[in-house]
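Quick question, first post here. What does this chain look like in 3D?
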Amino acid sequence: MMHVEKNLVIDASPETVWEPLSRYMDVDKFCTGISRVDALTGGEDGVGSKRRNNFPNGSSLIEEVTEWTVNRGYKVRMSEMVGLPMKDTTAFIRLEPVGAKTRVVWGMDYGMKNGPLGWIMGQTMLKFFMGKTITSNLQGLADLVKNNSSATVTNIAPDAKRAQSKRPHRRVGFKPTFTVQSTNSAIKSHLLRFNVQMSSNSSRAKNRNSGVAVLSLVEQFE
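> Answer (accepted):
Ran it through. Tokens below.
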């Protein structure tokens, strides 16, 4: 078996980083190398959840969650790897608290098809591309977490300012709760511009545009 692993410290708590990770069918929000994901299971995400990841070059694979620890990470087993050079593959994401921040460790263990030639490819070119892909996915996750946090910060301030500007006029019916109510609406609107999924698990469509980040390297083989 071969192993590749990368990590990145994100300026957010494990709970905050876990929020986008826990939406198992929405991994394409921070991993752009997957064209579509088909949700093969419904209900609450966790052990046993399965998705089919479809890639731009026509290849695909199925990922099934084998370990799931809230706010700490998960592990998946891959199967039906159509058009891919790997076999016997697992991947994991682990969250480690670092003070007020979080170290995200993303790794993969895999075997190779095609005998000795495949082994050489796995230890050289494929491992290199896997490392680049995981690094890119980690940065995508960090950007998404940052954007989500920025949405809260940048929307609260303007609403608070507008509320304050109305106070000298002593408008009838003005209540302190106005800022909170308006802020909630603004935040929802801003988050939608970032394509953040806000519906509950029960309202998920059968087919979702998401995917597995760690294997988006297949584009490199087109």
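Residues 152-222 have pLDDT under 50 and may be disordered.
The longest helix spans residues 115-166.
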